[in-house]
Amino acid sequence: MAPSPPHITARRGKFITLEGAEGVGKTTNREFIRRCIEMSGHTVIVTREPGGTPLAEQIRGLLLERREDGMSSDTELLLMFAARAEHLARVILPALEAGAWVLCDRFTDATYAYQGGGRGISSERIATLEEWVQGALRPDLTLLLDLPVAEGLQRAGQRSAPDRFESEQAAFFERVRLAYLALAQQHPARYRVIDAAQPLEDVQKNIQTVLTDFFATL
Ligand code: TMP
User: Is residue 110 lining ligand 1, measured as CB closer than 6 Å?
Assistant: First the structure.
């Protein structure tokens, strides 16, 4: 039987996603973006993937914990989408349908970048699951924070003990970065690439400009 895609016809809120590899400054800039959206007069829910509900956060724990027996790439892919299905059903779709905006720290583009670019799973396989789990839902705007891999890893390395993804080699993150930049080229209407190597003040000026332009289209 064909899967039923999520019901999105009544969607009114805007769906904004924040993407980038390790150490690009997503957490810092997430709060800045939240404030910009609130100041424009919209209610916004800030959430993240994998995670965003109690069950999806448990799945996140499984995905991020380092394990000696490893995890197959397909298991990783399916767990990402299992967490996403839960997050969509419980948080994202109800919020959008109620007219709230949703700011999500990573979404399916991270799957194309990490499981696709990083692990080598084909885009076609990912697209099949995307269609199954999301139906026609795609972000309205995606901000990609872009930074050379060495700099990102250096910044991320100053934080706590590395998780299963952070333990990957630089070559993995080079593939992730290239996959993100390719996605930005494929979807120019919704993607805005921000140079995250600039001083924070300039990064946030760029973000502010992108958001102001986006608000102007509403
Ligand atoms: P975070 O550190 O930004 O919270 O993300 C957790 C990790 O999960 C990060 O290393 C990227 C990875 N990830 C994927 O591999 N695929 C996905 O679809 C998502 C949402 C995250």
Answer: yes
